[in-house]
Write a structure and sequence with these properties.
Structural class: mainly beta
Strand order of the largest sheet: 5-10-7-8
Radius of gyration: 32 Å
Length: about 250
């Protein structure tokens, strides 16, 4: 009976004038090419490759490699625990994962989101900066330079291997510690000042909070810096400093 069914299949799909449905209750093995407009099966195993021009649906689909224009699924999993998507992945709803998500870029509401390239928190070894001196107000949260650290009024670093981009966003925190008498603090990108602020603690009440450094009051701690500029180069020079005449 199985040989008879296979014979009918071969004839039916080689002749375009013969149309109809074929039901196979057992196993079907085809060593050549099989073409059809629709397949329905409780379980379908393909050892080679399968090309579907319209839609492929099922309660569970397992593949070693798939190339898709559109994928709609309730859940996607991988036996290795890692799912690789080459190209763009568009999500109409939420995404949940027990591990990490890595991508070259994220697009939200048709707007490409920022990608973090470098992050320095100065808690470990200092690399690339013009000074390796750090300070801390509580013994935990460290910052570059600081009270009585001689750094020639400016610290610099060149960040390289930035990759393809159109803009650079610089975010930092600046501590105005100790004796400020109207001097200016600044941040520079490629030697150009992109942020500045001033501080003056003269005439402050003697009981004003002194949170770090010397005996002078500290009225401006952790002032945010957030600057965005056009940039396409593979490296960029960043510097922070002040016009203080004392260290």
């Amino acid at each position: 009976m199985l040989k008879f069914v296979v014979l009918l299949l071969s004839i039916a799909f080689s002749n375009a004038q013969d149309q109809g449905n074929v039901t196979v209750l057992g196993d079907l093995t085809i060593s050549g090419t099989f073409r059809t407009t629709n397949i329905r099966s409780g379980q379908l195993t393909i050892d080679g490759s399968m090309s579907v021009t319209q839609a492929l649906s099922g309660e569970s689909i397992q593949v070693n490699h798939a190339t898709l224009n559109v994928l709609q699924a309730v859940a996607i999993s991988s036996p290795t625990g890692t799912l690789h998507v080459v190209g763009e992945l568009s999500l109409g709803g939420s995404i949940q994962t027990n591990g990490s998500i890595r991508a070259s870029s994220f697009i939200q509401q048709d707007v490409k989101q920022w990608a973090l390239k470098y992050h320095d928190d100065f808690e470990g070894q200092i690399q690339g900066w013009s000074t390796n001196q750090t300070s801390s107000c509580d013994g935990n949260d460290h910052h570059l330079a600081g009270h009585c650290k001689e750094v020639q009024n400016e610290v610099k670093k060149v960040f390289s291997n930035l990759g393809e981009h159109k803009f650079i966003r610089l975010q930092a925190r600046y501590h105005f510690l100790d004796s400020w008498e109207g001097e200016k603090a600044f941040a520079k990108i490629e030697g150009r000042t992109v942020w500045s602020d001033i501080n003056d603690v003269r005439g402050m009440h003697p009981n004003t909070l002194n949170s770090c450094g010397g005996e002078h009051p500290d009225t401006k701690i952790s002032v945010p810096i957030d600057v965005t500029i056009p940039h396409t180069g593979d490296s960029i020079s960043i510097s922070f400093g002040s016009t203080l005449d004392e260290h």
